[in-house]
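Reading a protein record of the kind used here takes only a little practice. The integers have meaning only within a learned vocabulary of local backbone shapes. With that in mind, consider the following protein and its fold in token form:
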Amino acid sequence: MPPKSNTEPSAGAQMKRQYLISYNAISATLWFGVLARVVMHAAAEGVENGKVYEELERYTRLVQTGACLEVAHSLLVAWSVTEVIRYSYFVFALTDSVPKLWTWLRYNTFLVLYPIGVASETWLVYKAIPPASKIDEKFGWGLWAVLATYIPGFYTLFTYMLKQRRRIMRADAGKKKQ
């Protein structure tokens, strides 16, 4: 374990740490519940009858649904970092005081954050299709249609962003030469 720092962590860092502690403690407890139920079922009924999953399916699905938060975490990080950069960039731009670092962040972080965000979104839509189809088959097909738009949509928006990046970064490089 690394040595403890003498500096006080920020409120945001403390909140993140507390959230992660809670999330992982709850996950461990719920998965222990799955394990305990498997052991109790096996002890009472045996495993030969093939009914372990049948008996535990509902509870296990509930617990596994919590794993969707892993995707949501990456999605929320990608979205929030992107939006903080974007909106603060707009504030700087409207006051004619955009720091060079903010221009660089605005036109470069999307290279990593946009694919993470799109991958997270598509995974969540994909995982929503089976339960949506159980509610109404048309709803499931609608989600498949939404999912199909991500491929051309990603390409179109990403290439547009690359062009914007090229234009802005070249203009910024031109200012440095003057």
Remarks:
- The chain has two domains: 10-66, 69-178.
